[in-house]
Amino acid sequence: RRFARDVVRHREVLRGLLQQLRRDGRRVVGYGAPAKGNTLLNYCGIDGDWMPYVVDKNPLKVGLYTPGTHLPVRPVATLLEDQPDYVLILAWNFAEEIMSQQREYAARGGRFILPVPAPEVVS
How far is residue 19 from each of residues 15, 99, 110, measured CA to CA in Å? Predict the structure, then answer.
């Protein structure tokens, strides 16, 4: 029961953070299209109304859509071309690697959101 309450609270915190960023006029996109990330998107109801796309390094995923939420999957280079305000890291087990690879994005002012273990914004 505690786990179930924690999961619901986690969803509320993440949705609240994303809603506040939207109210502030900030743009958020996703990074990674793994099964766990898509489960998170679907459970939280994060679809095209919340973010315009996700990026992924896997060329087999680029050009497709995320299951359930139907977000277009674009190449990682899109982050520097588009420079969204925030990137929600959906492959959170690779967060350090992703943030290291995206140093230029961060140097331009981009920030990252780690959804697990608790939603938090990192530079």
Answer: 6, 23, 18
In the predicted model, is pLDDT for residue 123 greater than 90? no
Does this model's pTM top 0.90? My answer is: yes
Q: Around Cβ 84, how many Cβ atoms within 10 Å?
A: 20
> In whole angstroms, what is the distance from residue 48 CA to residue 65 CA?
11
Q: How many CB atoms lie within 10 A of CB 64?
A: 13
Which residue shows structure tokens 């959906």? 90
Per-residue pLDDT reduced to its tens digit, 57-100: 999 999 999 999 999 999 999 999 999 999 999 999 999 999 99
Output the six-digit token pair for 1.
Answer: 């029961």
DSSP letters of 42-63? HHHT--TTT-S-EEES-TTTTT
